[in-house]
Amino acid sequence: MRSKGFGTYPGPMATNKTKPTEVSVDAYIAGLPSDRRMAEAVTLKALFEEASGESAVMWGPSIVGFGQYHYKYESGREGDAAVAGFSPRKGAISLYGIYNSYDETLESLQADLGPVTAGVGCVYVKRLADIDLAALQARVRAAFQN
To answer: How many domains, the chain?
Structure first.
């Protein structure tokens, strides 16, 4: 039995469900439900590819990721993740790898990009046209320099 939070559970550590897939990024983008999200995804794909020097890969069913790194926590859990990426969801575009709430305030993120909200490591954008794309590109570039 391994300890997990307040109790125990039998069996091996959970595995990361978000992994690279063979799904075509272009086919995924072409299947998005709105013309606006499709256009935004095309713009983001080009921006991330240029800034990262990496090709786009689908991670799970809805994340377009760039690059890859291996992580291992003190708990023993480990896996692989995209260095940076995005997911053009219905309510907002999720951006990954460009912000860490432990290192930066939401106010500084907003001063840099514009009207965004954020979680611990994820940035949410309602409309791509509302943010500073040059600043986003610089953040993606920085993610690959660390």
So the answer is: 1
Q: Which two tokens stand for residue 123?
A: 């940035």
Across the chain, which has 146 residues, the per-10-residue mean pLDDT values are 38 65 96 96 98 97 95 87 95 95 92 94 95 98 90
Nearest-CA neighbor of 76 among 3, 13, 16, 7?
13
Using an 8 Å Cβ cutoff, are 67 and 84 in contact?
Answer: yes
Concatenated DSSP letters for 109-138?
HHHHHSS-EE-SSEEEES-GGGS-HHHHHH
Q: Say which DSSP state 30 is in.
A: H
In angstroms, the CA 57 to CA 26 distance is: 10
Specify if 1 maps to a domain: no
- Establish if 124 belongs to a structural domain: yes
Q: How many CB atoms lie within 10 A of CB 25?
A: 17
Range of the domain at 59: 19-145
**CA nearest 124: which of 113, 133, 135?**
113
CATH number for position 30: 3.90.1150
